[in-house]
Design brief:
Layout lengths: L1 H15 L8 H7 L12 H15 L7 H11 L4 H7 L8 H18 L6 H5 L1 E4 L3 E4 H29 L25
Antiparallel strand pairs: 1-2
Length: 190
């Protein structure tokens, strides 16, 4: 598992640093934050953060290009970028319809059982779908946000449990010392 992960990371770096692209200033500006080693090296805390970010964005079905948003947020919060991007694959062409229906039902249940103040414009928006009837947009939006938050919160105990059971696959690493994070290719400072 570790060898295939490292092979994936090397291939991705080679692709991002292709000789046709690396000399262009706009490409260097876009990819410079990606090359920090701490964003790619798996350890318990960065994987938990990356998985939480990816699971949250996987539940946001109305956002296009979920993987790119997850990668940008993972870079910003110093989380593991590959885990954030892979977690977005939960919502795909096969699973998006059942996820959307579950989110709608969750939102309906919360709206009817818990009195949450919802803006008037969102509460009035409805969709008429043949075969299903009229669906309220606020129920879907509420279910989408709550399911994303719940899945993101579930990522932390799962990753910490996995790290406790199999510490050689997902070790606990100390933060790198110094002012800036090390880049791939530089030695670890411990």
């Amino acid at each position: 598992m570790k060898k295939s992960y490292l092979r994936l990371v090397r291939r991705t770096f080679r692709t991002l640093r292709h000789r046709r692209l690396r000399h262009r200033p706009w490409w260097r500006t876009l990819t410079r934050p990606i090359f920090h080693r701490s964003l790619w090296k798996p350890c318990r805390d960065t994987v938990a953060n990356g998985l939480a970010i990816g699971l949250f964005f996987s539940m946001m079905l109305i956002i296009p290009l979920q993987m790119i948003w997850a990668a940008v947020v993972a870079m910003r919060f110093r989380a593991n970028v590959p885990f954030a991007m892979v977690a977005c694959w939960i919502s795909n062409a096969l699973t998006s319809v059942p996820i959307a229906l579950a989110q709608y039902r969750l939102g309906e249940w919360i709206r009817h059982n818990i009195a949450l103040p919802i803006p008037h414009q969102i509460a009035e928006a409805e969709l008429k779908i043949p075969g299903l009837g009229t669906l309220n947009a606020s129920s879907f939006a509420l279910g989408m946000v709550i399911s994303g938050v719940v899945l993101a919160l579930c990522a932390y105990p799962l990753v910490h449990l996995f790290s406790a059971i199999l510490p050689h696959h997902l070790p606990v690493r100390r933060a790198l010392s110094g002012g800036r994070p090390a880049r791939l290719g530089e030695s670890d400072v411990r």
